[in-house]
User: Fold these one by one.
Assistant:
Number 1:
Amino acid sequence: MFDNQASSQEKPVEEMPKKEEKTGGILEKIQELGQTNVPQMENSNIHCMTVVGQIEGHMQLPPQNKTTKYEHLIPQLVAVEQNSKIEGLLIILNTVGGDVEAGLAISEMIASMSKPSVTLVLGGGHSIGVPIAVASNYSLIAETATMTIHPVRLTGLVIGVPQTFEYLDKMQERVIKFVTKHSEISEDKFKELMFSKGNLTRDIGTNVVGTDAVEYGLIDEVGGIGQALKKLNLLIDEKKHEGVPIQ
């Protein structure tokens, strides 16, 4: 009896499986890239990219701000374009806007992709989020979502020199041309919304709700995630059958 107890005590204790390395890898991806997989998509032919909070460009924002860093999105877009397993891109937007040049850079990359893309505005697609929303092949907006259209501006009330104003004016023209080129809204209507007085409290611009965005031609359709995925799969099928890039 004593021998059995001794032998049982001498049995090596099995070590619990270590998950530190796996967990550390996932946390590192979340910290560096904003999500866990960028983009492997072994079980799906669609990559989902989110743009939330404020779009962070050349200036680092305070740590308490919810941000989307454009240097994280650009590698994702390149990977989507190069990965043969990924056939479509879904962009989910809920952003207050942010850095104008960073937003335009993201918009240009989405617009120049050869693979079908669909954007879905949830909550809000404000300011420089507007060009990103219209950059894809097809855009949708939730019925309760809004889009704020206003002139390009700096923080503060005073523009110091004429050169600064000219720079902002040219940047604003770049935004206007991009939006009108990639949507059905006319330049006159977009400028009317941008420079409208009285819609925004103590400010210049217009807050456009989901159905109005479609009526103005800014967004293609009112809908949610189901409609967005259905449309993206339809675009993917059309490209397969036609064998040409979706324009």
Number 2:
Amino acid sequence: MNQFKFAASHKAVTYGMMGLGVLCLLITFLIDDELHTRFWSNYLHNTVFFTGVAFISLFIMSAFITAWAGWYVTMKRVWEAYALFLIPGLALMLVLIIGLWGGFHHLYHWADAEAVATDKILQHKSAFLNKGWYTFGTLIIMGVWIFFAMKLRQLSLDEDQYGTTEYKYHHKMRIWAAAFLPLGGFTSAALVWQWVMSVDAHWYSTLYAWYTGASWFVSAMALTILTVIFLKFMGYLEAITEEHLHDMGKYLFAFSIFWTYLWFSQYMLIWYANVGEETVYFQTRQREYPVLFYGNLIINFLVPFFVLMRNDTKRKYGTLVFVSAVVLIGHWLDFFQMIKPGVLHTAHEVMAHGHDHAHGEEAHHAFMMGFHFPGLLEIGTMIGFLGLFIYFVFSRLEKASFEPKNDPYLAESLQHHV
């Protein structure tokens, strides 16, 4: 079957997932501290994670188009739908922007005017770390990403309808894709610094954008494998064979190693230099978040490395589903440990004004569910965002045939063999 039908039963499941997410966010808000730190950090965590999956899907697709790749053509509709999630991703980010201007959350220490006034480091960074840059940088850059996602999608659909042997639509797609690659690469770094790295406002890493992008890439590839196998189970994507899944498994394996390389490079250089304002980032996570810190490497490196090392495991549905699910959860946890310690520290700094400082320090080192490790509310919130992602993607898949009949590389994809 080449035309996807979003069944009512599947819609009901996604509605239930979204409902669970809303309920968990509501409960989190009601039982939270006075700044609603857990609520807002959960919202930021999941918004950035799934918006990043949408962005990197657009980047992957653009890279394949530019490279004249043919193997991926039978599954490109999935990545087109993923990329379009940037639209609801921008809407989700608008909530954070409104909260920033309204003072509804304290996710970022640099947004506290009193803190900036007495902090020389924050003052030096204020040209970049400020509400205006956060707002207009997000709106303009994400607006550009959405424009490219919609442009490539429209050209792909036009090629289906009007494509000829001249391949003019594919030529246009190649131009737009090539233009997006450097633009997306540089602008994504700026937003990663704003959205995630600046929760630890005194710290920075030149490898951070690469590290985050690699995490998004692995997450997107894992989610793609799960989506493709699910659609094949439902009788769709018959043209996708174990050869295509083998290639996706290779990307999952290779970029898990690349992510580990970036993790080690960032950690080793900072450890070796032993500069206080840099080492504090890892020192905090090693001492106060050891399960997340060491579990991160076990889940996101050791599991995919040893399971996918064998050639045949990248061709087996069961193995791919297992590894993809583990890695997807693992990189969601990776973003959890990137965000939560910095947000918690900022919350304690804000609440320290007018409160007993010693009590604040004691609370800072005590175990807190939802910060030192995800609780049921965090898991439920993640399920809700995943439900929204699936609902949006499947709604887009309904609007175009799985087989891009006039793509010049379709025959290559149909005959793909490794």
